[in-house]
Amino acid sequence: MNLAFYIHIPYCIKRCGYCDFNTYTPGELQITTGLNDISNSYIDLLIKEIQFARAEVGENVTVPSIFFGGGTPSLMQASDIGRVISTIKNGFNLSAEAEITMECNPDTVSKESLTQFKEVGVNRLSFGMQSAVKHVLETLDRTHNPDNLLQATNWADQIGFKEISVDLIYGTPGESISDWQTSIDSALSLPITHISAYALIVEEGTKLAAQIKRGQVNPVDDDLAAEKYLIADQAFTSAGFDWYELSNWAKPNSASKHNLAYWLGDNWWGAGPGAHSHLNGRRFWNVKHPNLYKEKIESNQSPIAGSESLEELQRESERLMLSLRLPTGVAKKTLNEQQLLELSEYVESGHLDQSNWNEGRATLTVDGRLIADRILRKILL
Ligand SMILES: C[S@@+](CC[C@H](N)C(=O)[O-])C[C@H]1O[C@@H](n2cnc3c(N)ncnc32)[C@H](O)[C@@H]1O
Ligand code: SF4
Which fold has domain 4-263? Predict the structure, then answer.
């Protein structure tokens, strides 16, 4: 069996105004010790959970990818990240060519720390770039200066990281088409092999949502965001980055194995507070708060807060949802007559590709990608 590992690091120096991820500042957790102590003691907990995973799934398990996500994994000490990798290596069969990714905030890395991360086995970096335009970064309430990104990716390249990705956000209030073009051009000038570009989602309860409610910041303009997606797709594709998932583009052979494992419905274990796992049609998730997670792990209790077994219908809906996002789309022979009838209208309107349809697959055209959710709703069971 294959099992990808997601390792959650729930700490950030400051919470960005748009973000509702399960992450905390040391102040929010009333942690008074330095980050080094947090790193060491938090990783001890993760190691116990990985050992618990080993007892659950047994030894005949191959790990094709590990993904350190957050929060801000680059706040951890490289030696601690190395301890997680060694624990997985000792307990499972870690593939020789395993993809080991770490998300980094460009503000929290140095050439030295990136070198150390590489030495302990990290072989792919994903930087939270978001934008190259100062006023957009300010609206997003980001701490980093756009120049840090160039410096951080150049260091990564000089050190020998072959796989470097950046995350961009489009559709921030106040971002003009020319601002977005600046961010695209800036990303494409970096030594990178992969780009994720996400439409800004205004999450309830965030500082940004409150600013929009109070009228201090304009709401997101969906039509403008759609235009920005099309501009990005055109620019990334012309620069040699192939589209391989709704929000992801990669140079040949640089698609993320870990992300594909999620989208192809494989098994993964998420370690850390709030992390979700998927094992052969069963899903389970951990307690959300880091303090409760710590309490559970330290008292040798399972950190799992809940679980569900996916019914056949749910599994099928999930398969449709995940595969429609990919260029390979959905095989027509797996769909019923009603679904085919619904989809044929989208072939006529140019949202599904005519020649792939003739060859037996329903795949989104670039215009179809803009309304992927609407198309999906028509065929969900
Ligand atoms: C965990 S963060 C990445 C690493 C690091 N914490 C950072 O932000 O630099 C994952 C990515 O999710 C995206 N993201 C987070 N909140 C979002 C939102 N509300 N709308 C769109 N994208 C969002 C951002 O692009 C972010 O880089
Ligand atoms: S640094 Fe990343 S995870 Fe942390 S608050 Fe900002 S977007 Fe969210």
Answer: TIM Barrel (3.20.20)
